[in-house]
Amino acid sequence: MKRLVAAWILAGMALVACGSAVPELTTERIAYLQKKDQNSVVAKTVDRPGSSEPYAKGKPGSTWTTDITDDPKSFNLLHDQDTQTDAVVSGLYDYLLNYDVYTKEWKPELASYEIQVDEKTGTMAVIFTLRDDLYWTTLADPGKRVKVTSDDVIYWYNDIVGDPALQQSGYANEFVQMPDGSKKHIDIKKIDDRSFELLYPRIVAEPEEASNMNFGPRYVFEPLKKAKGVDGVLNLWSVDTNPKTIPSLGPYYIDSYHPGVDVTLVRNPSYWKRDAYGQSVPYIHQIDIKIVPNRETEKLKFLAGELDSFTLRPEDLEDMVNRSPKDYTVYYAGPALSAAFIAWNENPKNLAPKYVRWFTNTKFRQAMSCFFDRSRIINEVYRGLAEPALYAFARANPFFDPSIKEQYTYDPARGRKLLAEIGIRPNNEGLMQDSEGNIVEYDLDVPAENNVSNDIANVFADEMKRVGITIRVHAVPFQTMVDGLMKTYDWQAVLIGLTSSIFPIDGGNVWLSSGNLHLWHPLESKPATPWEAEIDELYWKGFSELDAVKAKAIWDRYQRIILDELPLMYIVYPDSFVAYRNRWGNIRVDTLGAPDMNYVYLKD
Hints:
Elements lengths: L3 E2 L21 H12 L1 H4 L19 E6 L14 H7 L7 E4 L4 E4 L2 E8 L4 E8 L4 E2 L9 E2 L2 H12 L13 E3 L5 E3 L1 E4 L4 E6 L6 H5 L6 H17 L17 E7 L3 E6 L18 E6 L3 H9 L5 E3 L5 H6 L5 E8 L5 E4 L8 H7 L2 H9 L3 H7 L5 E3 L23 H10 L3 E2 L5 E2 L7 E7 L3 H16 L3 E7 L1 H11 L4 E6 L9 H4 L18 H15 L3 H18 L2 E3 L1 E10 L2 E2 L15 E2 L2
Helix pairs in contact: 4-6, 10-12, 16-17
């Protein structure tokens, strides 16, 4: 499942993975070495990516200080849809499985598993067995330990995520499309207190990814839902709750929250995970999360020693690598896995008819892409430290193919021709006008917290002005943008990002027409266009295709449609640079997930 992020966050690390060591020389590493030769500033950074080699033995204890750009919206896992809330809430939970991006293997986390395939019936079962040392505990009552059982998972699957009234992103993932086009539920069945199975009505290609989940405590949610219904569950654990009362089975508790100031997490001593030497992890015992909405203030706090890491903006790099003396190292993390994008609202709800006509026309979107000068953005906004985002899949995706790339690149003459083909031509004043006499103009919303996005939008607006189209750039608070995209649908165009993903099926809530993050027209009861219908069909074919050659053909076509139809116009993959204080050990950095914060420790 993907979630929305303010675009600059894409330069950071969006996935959690484990392990560390230098991998084979990839295209990303080659690109880095080339940039080192071309750019003396890049040459002063450190390239130390992660891999599956074990981390060094660390020393438990200490406090890590980091920051988020805004207050969390809730302490409830059901509202974990933005990066601020996720930064606070995610430490209370774990997933059943973990995907090691370096070895490309699934590994047990909360549970071991086995897959059983019945060729005769064409069905599949994924059987999970939970660890025997999992407990729900709280800071308020540390002596009370509630055993985590299969009932927690089953209740969460059936009665929380599986209740459409709760409008959870994972609801759609509980169904699989059958060869005849019908949808069938993936049922869950209890085996015993620790074991359960997910029963697939058809064989699927990546059952680990499709089955992986986190979950909350049944002993809290079930009686509350019986007493107060859906509203009671959704209103649970607001930011006014005493966080010490919130159960955790993850590495941390929420200890305290001061609105507009900070959130403090403290280590959960009942957490199950150990390092290769038998020590409990994470090594860090406390995390102080400062609320710093201004990026320049964030940089100043890092330079003053108040933060332990800082994700650099393009304009920060030269200054920060050339400071002397300095107690930090700037690491090159590689190009971002995914890119921010511009999308146009195709949803007729709360949108004037002229915008619906323009934005739903494929040639209009293709023309916008032809007016979009990525090289100018790379040079002016990113100071050369980025590359064009011309692909639908991240490079880490097993179905990434560099030959499948965007064809509607910067070419204003082609853009004018495409507009002319749909009746949009310049009037006597040089302004683009449609066949009904409407001047072509629209609003472009960008996150108010993100100066980089504002700069990108203004470059695009300048390019559009040259062809007679007016774009009005509006800086909007990120949460207001999210509400517009997912609730009111009252917007025209937006510049935003999504968290990166490795597997194509991770994007189901974006690319399936029924998805809640199908941003341009969410939650369609049926595909609004033939191309969306084909995407739906290809997604489910790829979801179940076991033959690698056939699967590649399916996902190749899937990518091609996305890049031709352009519901999302990707911008650039920024080079990512992150500074860490030298006092911390086991620091290795890449956009795949290193460092694994379980193993970062304070050196002597």
